[in-house]
Please model this.
Amino acid sequence: MNTFPADFLWGGAVAANQCEGAYNEDGKGLSVQDVLPKGLKGARTETPTPDNLKLEGIDFYHRYKEDIKLFAEMGFKVFRTSIAWSRIFPEGDEEQPNEKGLQFYDNVFDQCLKYGIQPLVTISHYETPLGLAKKYDGWRSRKLIGCFERYCRTIFTRYGSKVKYWLTFNEINSLLHAPFMSGGIMTPAEELSEEDLYQAMHHELVASALAVKLGHELMPGAKIGCMILGITTYPLTPDPDDIIATMLKDRETMIFADIHARGKYPSYLKQYFKDHHIQIQMEPGDEEMLKHTVDFISFSYYSSNCATVHTELGVSTGGNLSRGYKNPYLKASEWGWQIDPKGLRYTLNKLYDRYQLPLFIVENGLGAVDQLVTLENGEKTVVDDYRIDYLRQHLLQVREAIHDGVEVMGYTSWGCIDVVSASTAEMKKRYGYIYVDRNDDGSGTLERYRKKSFGWYQRVIKTNGASLDEEV
Ligand code: BGP
Model:
């Protein structure tokens, strides 16, 4: 039974810093990404270094027309990308925006609209301007709220007639796990107290609510959502202590959705602050501001993991920023991220039960090493049946969740065209329907090739999900 609604938003997602390149063109300032040549796993450098793949990305900055045309060929209804904040405000705290940066996104959104593709824009996707990181220690400073407000006002005014769907901070809960990449916080993570991190969180949450308020004022009809890194956790054993451990681990994620959806700090967090002598500096008006709740909740979903108090039984597992234990029932990707399609149905139901707000899956996919092959007709492609299988299994579970009664707005798979990885800055960790000829050593022609999954996804969209029933 096909239960995808007729207006389901099928599409794909990328982020400016992982695809655009042109890191210093047309007045762009540096962002925190430009000094992370090895991604999250490596040390940051003082200045950009030549071995940083993100500096050139996949050259989307110059090739966006041909790339969006390929998305249109697949039938995308929506394309998620981010605006690189430092293209618009190079240092982050200027009074006036950079016109050339603004023009670029006008071009990108116009190109999408030409094909009937709705842009879905992440306002801040791990791209805090380096200037704000250096001057203010990123989101630790309240000063960033004002800078963010000016940035939002600028882009809402400029693109309000073109962009209906907005996300405030990418994976906002990652701030607690990756303070530099996520929050532009220069102070080394080991020197930060929990209080420092929660203070930064508070600033981002107020800024996020402010964006919702401002967005609704300046763009009537716009839909503004939060974006959560969906860390799905199961108890490793039925021991009630593992159930409690899971509940507590879950809350690290849910805090952020709770505040965005309910407009106030949850009581369990207030109690946690008391118990741990954490005092957040709130200014008058902050609590009122938080009441500007989101229109929908979006999240990334790649894998799940387990929590346990029986650490001797658990084997640690990888994942995007999530820390947990291996689930013996699941297989993992080449990067050790556990593959759990049913966990997506579970996560959708859990979020919907809790908030009754529309949900948007804005990241999901399989990072894998692809082999470019030449077919008899001379065409180059990748036979990525493993990726098709991953996506198909997940989409079938989205359909189950819709059948369960969950309101799902859409699905944008991650890295619809191969991009540079966020966590490891590798090019060989590919997610796309479109192969980009670029290698970890920076070599390659940057040519684009349709993978087998390109035609598969095209058919899924064309049939509004009905073709998911076909075995591949
Ligand atoms: C998410 C980020 C993305 C993205 C994705 C895949 O956490 O929002 O930017 O890259 O994970 O992760 P990776 O690129 O490390 O494989």
Summary: DSSP finds 14 helices and 18 strands in the chain. The chain has a mean pLDDT of 96.
